[in-house]
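Ticket #4471: structure output looks truncated?

Reporter: J.K.
Steps to reproduce: submitted the chain below (275 residues) through the standard prediction queue, then opened the result file.
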Amino acid sequence: MANYTAQDIKALREQTGAGMLDVKKALDEADGDKAKATEILRVKGLKGVTKREGRTTANGLVAAKVEPGVGTLLEVNCETDFVAKGEKFIALADQVLTQAVASKASDAQALLASSVDDGTVQDLIDGAGATIGEKIEVRRVGRLEGETVVSYLHKTSPDLPAQIGVLVAVKGGDEVVARDIAMHIAAFSPTVLTRDDVDPETVANERRVAEATAKEEGKPEAALPKIVEGRVNGYFKENVLLEQPFAKDSKKTVAKVAEEAGAEVTGFLRFKVGI
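Returned output as attached by the reporter:
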């Protein structure tokens, strides 16, 4: 009989994020030696890296780090929520975030190629995936600069790490209004800061759809321009941050709330795991 207990299985599973059956087999092979079992899990995991390449990584977390005048936002993905809430995965994300800040990487490719310890971030990710037994990937990283940058992380489930992350840059005002706007962004998911940031092709398509819909509804020809304009403005109100009704006071736009606080929103980033 192998020299380990149910508590050893639990501890190793939490440490590595590997499945229960894999942990038991590794402990059996290692005769209860947890350090050796961890190495066995890692070696077996590396053999499975290629097999995991096609798997879907729909779970994970978003992490953020803010320093004076700049913020970094990171999304790291895995396959299951069990791994996403594990200490090992969370520690890995923290390590990658630290490297993202240090390297000033503005995209995932640059971050993965940057040097950390005795290899690259990609090597670090591959090693963690081998130990855990799941596909892990850095999906995206972003940097935001501004006079004042604040972050907000939101948990969509109490037993999971943050699934939504926001960075907001403001000029003037204070961090209180900036954080309120960050919370608004987390809830209402705007896609751009101003209507000028919307792709002209998207606007043209919205106009075409609005006109076709109005005609299908039998609206009078003379009324079409006003109807189309109203529906396009509706699209802007839904997607443009500064034109959205503010979460805490829907009678005011985000732009108005910022103005009343003596602030100007100069940029934002929003990541949601898997989206």
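Triage note (M.O.): checked the attachment and the full token line is present. The longest strand covers residues 263-272.
Status: closed, working as intended.
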